[in-house]
């Protein structure tokens, strides 16, 4: 289990910092353990922290006044989020909830802005991050309108193995079928069927509490 300093040092942006910049980043970051079902952050609250998943699995979602909930994406080990809201100085537009017990890093706004002012590699990381996230959400809108359930699930799972957004994901993900359903917005019946269809297409392998990606490009293009 990596300590906070090790997790930051191994991150895509942390390993590019100078010693002074890294010390500043570490001093401005705290770690919290979030229990299953608890909020990492909440819609409507002031945005004063940048967050990263050290270990665990969380989902970014929005709950409407009608009671309907929409899930935007899952966030797993190595993923950082919230930079857009920090840059715009707006209240948070979504909830982030833990699907299992997770370790979350919280960097305060002052430290985040200091790194932007002093580190070119940090800025490059943010540009790449924002570009990847924009592409991800545009793709999700397209998939929702054009693809069937199995194909939407394939694209949702592929998005969680984006090497730029989630460098710690590898090709295996500890995830239950219930968690897959929460992330993809699938009913219990569909979450029992769709992953099996993807396994039969030799795109992934289902194991107890885990899935293994066999063909990431195939998942990304499934249903095209």
In short:
By secondary structure, the protein is of the alpha+beta class.
Name the poorly predicted regions.
none
Strand content: 15-25%
Taking the alpha carbons of the first and last residues, their distance comes to: 40 Å
CATH class categorisation of the largest domain = Mainly Beta
Global geometry: globular
C-alpha Rg (nearest Å): 18 Å
Supply the number of helical segments: 9
The ordered H/E elements are HHEEEEEEHEEHHHEHHEEH
Determine the oligomeric state from the structure: single chain
What is the CATH superfamily classification of the largest domain?
A: Jelly Rolls
- In total, how many domains does the architecture comprise? 2
Q: Widest sheet: strand order?
A: 1-8-3-6
CATH architecture annotation name of the largest domain: Sandwich
Main pleated-sheet profile: 4 strands, antiparallel
The assigned structural class equals: alpha+beta
What share of residues is helical?
A: 40-55%
- Give the mean pLDDT: 86
Enter the CATH topology name of the largest domain: Jelly Rolls
Tell how many strands the DSSP assignment holds: 11
Report on the structure:
With 224 residues, the protein is of the alpha+beta class. It has two domains: 4-132, Jelly Rolls, CATH 2.60.120.10; 147-221, Orthogonal Bundle (Arc Repressor Mutant, subunit A). The protein is 43% helix and 25% strand. The protein has helices at 4-10, 19-27, 83-88, 109-118, 120-146, 149-159, 177-184, 188-200, 216-221; strands at 29-34, 39-41, 49-55, 57-63, 69-76, 80-81, 95-98, 102-108, 172-174, 204-207, 210-213. A four-stranded antiparallel beta sheet has the order 1-8-3-6. Strands 2-7-4-5 form a four-stranded antiparallel beta sheet, with helices on one face. The protein has a three-stranded antiparallel beta sheet with strand order 9-11-10. Strand 4 (57-63) and strand 5 form a beta hairpin. Helix 5 runs antiparallel to helix 6.
């Amino acid at each position: 289990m990596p300590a906070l300093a090790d997790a930051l040092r191994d991150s895509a942006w942390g390993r590019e910092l100078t010693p002074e910049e890294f010390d500043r980043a570490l001093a401005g970051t705290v770690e919290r353990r979030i229990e299953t079902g608890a909020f990492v952050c909440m819609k409507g609250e002031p945005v004063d922290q940048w967050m990263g998943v050290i270990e665990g699995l969380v989902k970014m979602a929005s709950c409407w006044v009608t009671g309907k909930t929409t899930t935007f994406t899952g966030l797993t080990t190595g993923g950082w989020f919230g930079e857009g809201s920090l840059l715009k100085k707006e209240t948070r537009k979504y909830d982030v909830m833990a699907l299992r017990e997770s370790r979350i890093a919280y960097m305060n706004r002052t430290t985040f802005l200091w790194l932007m002012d002093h580190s070119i590699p940090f800025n490059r990381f943010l540009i790449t991050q924002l570009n990847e996230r924009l592409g991800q959400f545009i793709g999700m809108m397209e998939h929702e309108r054009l693809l069937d359930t199995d194909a939407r699930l394939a694209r949702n799972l592929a998005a969680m193995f984006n090497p730029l957004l989630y460098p710690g994901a590898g090709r295996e993900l500890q995830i239950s079928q219930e968690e897959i359903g929460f992330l993809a917005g699938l009913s219990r019946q569909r979450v029992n069927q769709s992953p099996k269809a993807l396994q039969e297409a030799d795109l992934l392998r289902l194991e107890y509490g885990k899935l293994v990606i066999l063909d990431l490009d195939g998942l990304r293009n499934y249903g095209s």
